[in-house]
Amino acid sequence: MPAVTHPVPAADARSHEILASIRQAFAEKGFDGASMQDLARAAGMSVGNFYRYFPSKAAIVQAMCGYDLTEIQGEFAEIQTSDRPMLSLRERILNHFSEESLKDGQLWAEITAAAIRKPEIGQAARQMEETIVSLLTTIFAQATRRPLEEARVRYEGQCQMLVMLVKAMAIRTAQCGPASPALAAEVVAVIDRLLAQISNDTAEG
User: Fold this and answer.
1) Chain centroid to CA 133
2) Which of the 8 DSSP states describes residue 34?
3) How far apart are CA 122 and CA 65, in angstroms?
4) Contact assessment for residue 132 and residue 125, using Cβ atoms and an 8 Å cutoff
5) Residue 102 carries which DSSP code?
6) How far is CA 64 from the centre of its chain?
7) Biggest alpha carbon–alpha carbon distance for the chain
8) How far apart are CA 50 and CA 36, in angstroms?
9) Number of C-alpha atoms within 13 angstroms, CB side, residue 174?
10) What's the distance, CA 173 to chain centroid?
11) What is the pTM of this model?
């Protein structure tokens, strides 16, 4: 039987295209500095049409979090089915430190700042982080052969640290430029220590 495909609805696909086209303008001008007119212009749309897709800047940020999270969930699905999930996870984490991946650092710096002032953005950012922590927990439960709930409690700190490192490196790169080799080496060493700690914590029996 041929595989059943589920095409992306046209409206969702168009929203994704708009988000991709305005990310740079949003990052450069900032949450408060970027007007809806600026963002509509970056998307090549009239302001009225732009409002049909995104009625506010908060709605834009929420949609960005949602789309980025969908991509992250796809990455974790591939990690979970790989022959060596922990090694695959390490590779994916380090890929987020590439120059291309760190281009979104300024955008996430703006979102982090806006999350402090705007409860709805703060909620979207927290939900995104909580979901990533949950995805990491699933990988760690699989690698250590522990029940999911036990892994959730046991590795909560390590999961949060990994998320914080990726986020902090992206924001720092946006503010200060690429990390020095010494800093990059220290970050990788911390990641390796965390992952080794978990890999060696396999449940007995």
Assistant:
1) 11
2) -
3) 11
4) no
5) G
6) 10
7) 63
8) 8
9) 22
10) 16
11) 0.83
Structure tokens at 166: 């990726």
Main-chain dihedrals φ then ψ at residue 179, nearest 5 degrees: -65, 150
Structure-block tokens of residue 108: 């996430």
Contact 66, 146 (CB under 8 A): no
Q: How many CB atoms lie within 10 A of CB 10?
A: 8
pLDDT value at residue 5: 36
Buried b (16+ CB within 10 A) or exposed e, 66-87: eeebeebeeebeebeeeeebbe
What's the pLDDT tens digit per position in 143-187?
A: 999 999 999 999 999 999 999 999 888 888 878 888 899 999 999
Quick one: DSSP state of residue 32? T
Encoded tokens for 9: 């609805």
Q: Residue type for 4, please? A: V
Q: How far is CA 55 from CA 16, 35, 40, 129, in A?
A: 15, 12, 11, 24
Residue spans of beta strands (DSSP E) within the chain: none
Residue type, 10: A
**DSSP assignment letter at 46:** -
